Amino acid sequence: MERSNGLLQKQPSDAEMAAYRETLRRLLTDAFGGDLTWWYVADRAGSTLICSDDEYDVIKHRHFEIREKSVVLIECISELKRNAARSFAATASREVSSLGALMNILRQFHRFATQLKKRHAGRETLTIKDEHDVHDLLHALLLMHFLDVRPEESAPSFAGASPRLDFLLKEEQIVVEVKKTRESLTERGLCDELLADIARYQKHPNCKIPVCFIYDPETRITNVSGLVSDLESTPSAMPVHVFIGPQH
Q1: CB atoms within 10 A of CB 224
Q2: Where are the alpha helices (DSSP H) in 146-208?
Q3: For the whole prediction, is pTM greater than 0.85?
Q4: pLDDT (tens digit, 9 = 90+) per residue, 55-83?
């Protein structure tokens, strides 16, 4: 728009008009991903034949063309803003949907684990004894709902260590960190471990939504609300979601 306004303040030459049209073509083609529709509209705007050699008429016609193309350019900018808003809304909707699906899995995890114990004729099953068992069962459940589930994804080095994320949902850019309570792990120790994990999330290029899943089947955590509040209120570049199950 600045270039258009600048040309309107002078008597643009043939070369300046040619450069203006070419710049406008490249700008609109790039902005709309190679779609030439808006460029065709802009190219026709104000492009009428002039049957006069009078310099005044020529300049007047060029100013008219610039003003007409500027009108199209303003509408193009509005269309780009609308496209960006629609894209943002669609992305936000997908994130909410994906997070909702994940949280439903975590809410139902304990029921699923409990049901697995009830095998026909006492057949062998997966009994959750430690954190590795939680990982195995949760991994299977995640694969039912998400296409690209990456267990033990490498995370950026933090405090001299090269840790791994428990699960990365690649397409959804969700990281899931899993903890299981045990007698030797205090609430303070659990909180400190997860705070360190949260700090690592911020450095991972594919993490937009960090989720902490704490499985506490023996109800060892005495202050669930306090632990959740401490973790979710941690200063972070992205909001942290914490779920403790089964819900006490």
Answers
A1: 16
A2: 187-201
A3: no
A4: 777 788 888 888 888 888 888 888 888 77
